[in-house]
Known about the structure:
The structure is a single chain. This protein has 477 residues and is an alpha/beta fold. The chain contains 19 helices and 18 strands. The protein has helices spanning 19-33, 87-90, 108-123, 145-150, 174-179, 200-207, 216-221, 225-228, 232-237, 274-284, 308-318, 333-345, 358-367, 383-389, 400-405, 411-415, 429-443, 446-457, 463-476; strands spanning 3-7, 37-43, 55-62, 65-73, 80-85, 135-139, 158-163, 171-173, 193-194, 197-199, 210-213, 242-244, 295-302, 324-331, 350-354, 370-373, 393-397, 422-424. The strands form three sheets. A nine-stranded mixed β-sheet has the order 3-4-5-2-1-6-7-11-12, with helices on both faces. Strands 15-14-13-16-17-18 form a six-stranded parallel β-sheet, sandwiched between helices. Strands 8-10-9 form a three-stranded antiparallel β-sheet. Helix 1 (19-33) packs across helix 19, helix 11 packs parallel to helix 12 (333-345) and helix 11 (308-318) crosses helix 17 (429-443). The longest helix is centred in the N-terminal third of the chain and has 16 residues, at 108-123. It starts with a strand and ends with a helix.
Amino acid sequence: xxxxxxxxxxxxxxxxxxxxADVAGxxxxxxxxxxEDVRIIMPNYQAIKMxxxxxxxxxxxxxxxxxxxxxxxxxxxxxxxxxxxxPEFFDFPGNPYVDEQGxxxxxxxxxxxxxxxxxVEVAMNRSWLxxxxxxxxxxxxxxxxxxxxLSLEHxxxxxxxxxxxxxxxxxxxxxxxxxxxxxxxxxNMNGIEFHNRLSFLKGGxxxxxxxxxxxxxxxxxxQTADFGYGLEGLLSYRKDFLSGIINGIDTNHWNPETDxxxxxxxxxxxxxxxxxxxEELQQxxxxxxxxxxxxxxLISRLVxxxxxxxxxxxxxxxxxxxxxxxxxGSGNKEFEQRLQEFAESxxxxxxxxxxxxxxxxxxxxxxxxxxxxxxxxxxxxxxQIYSLRYGTVPVVRxxxxxADxxxxxxxxxxxxxxxxGFVFDEASPGALMEAIKRALxxxxxxETWKQLQINGMQxxxxxxKSAQQYVALYNQL
Length: 477
C-alpha cells in the first residue's frame, strides 16, 4: 500500500468548475478501492458544499500566515480530504479562479503559492499530521510549485504532475516571483522562469519525477507547437517521463440503467426504452414529437476551442435535412446570440438552452441519437464517453481523448463490431458536415445503427482501469 497525497484546486462534489473536479472526485476513490492510502489536499473555499463534519487538525506557519489544516471526507467515499484553511485568501464568495463578477482573482498567484507551500509542509510531515506520503500527485498549474519546492528538500516523496489542459498555465509577471519570496535557485530558464515571467505550470513540468496527461494522443500533441503553448520543447525533452492515461467516468452517476434524471432507464438489451427519453426530450424542449427523426445534441462551453463556430457554419446545411438539434451550454455571448437566432427562426428544428442544467444534460445524453464534439483540442473529454454509455453515437474530431475513445465507422470496423462513432480530421465546417452526413446515412439503416449503439455501450469506462495504470506508474517510482 502506498501513501498518496492528491493535490488539487477543486474536487467534485465539494466544488467544481470543470473536468479537474471530476477527476479529483473519482480517481482518489478508485485508488482507495484498490487498497492505496489516499488523502486529498485542497484549499478551503467559502463556496465548498460541506456534507460531512469538519474537524480541526493542526496549524502550520507559512510566510507569516497561520494556516489551519481541517479534515473532512469526500461524500459517499472513504477518502480523507484535508482543507487548507486561510481565510485571508480563500474565505470569499466566488469560485477557485474568479470572483462573483467573473473577474480573475487579482491575488491568484499569492493564493496558490500559499496552498503549494502548505502542501509541501504536509508532504514533508512538518504539519503535525504524523503521515508522510510516498507519492505527491499534483494536478494543473495551481499545484505546479509543489514539485519545484519539493526538489529543494532532502528525503522528499516522489512527485507526479498531471496536465488536464495545457491552455491554462498560471503565468505571472516577474515582480510576482519576487513578492512571493520564492527560493532564488528556482528562478532560471531551466526552472520556473518562462520568458522573464513566472510560470506555475513549468514548475510542475520541470521538477516532477513523472508527468501524465489525460489521454495518450494529447500526450503526443502537447509536444508540438500547436498544442504546447511554448512548452513543447520542454515536453519533448522530458518525453521519456511523460505518458497519457485516459480519464474514467463516474459510472454510478452516468449510468442509463439507474439514472434518476431520465424518463426511462435502459441498457444495451432494452434500447427501445431510449425512445421514451427521446420523446420526453422533444416534449420538454417544445420540438415536434417524432421518434423517427434523428436528434443531434451538444452540451458544451460555447467557446472556439469546442468548435462551436464549425457547428454554426454547418447549421444552414443541416437544416435542409429532416433532423432536430438541441444544445445546452453557455460562453461566448456572440455565439449564444447567433444560436438563439437560429432557434427563433427554426423553432420546429432547433432548441437552444443557455446555461447549465444537470437534469437536462442527462436527458439530452439519453434522448438524442447523435452527439456532436467537433473540438479543436480536447485533452480527454467526457461527454463523448457519456454518449457512448447512453447509446448516443458521437461525431468527434480526431484530437486528444476524442481520438482515443471513439472508433470511426468504416467497413472493417463495422464488420468486426469495433465501430463506435464518426471521426473527422480537419477543423473545418466541410469536414464536420461530411461526418454528419455519414451519420445520417447510417441512421437510416436501423440494424447497423443499433449495432453501433451496442458496440459503444459495451465498453469499459470505469475509473478502475485508469486507477490501475496510475498504480503501475506509482510503483515504478
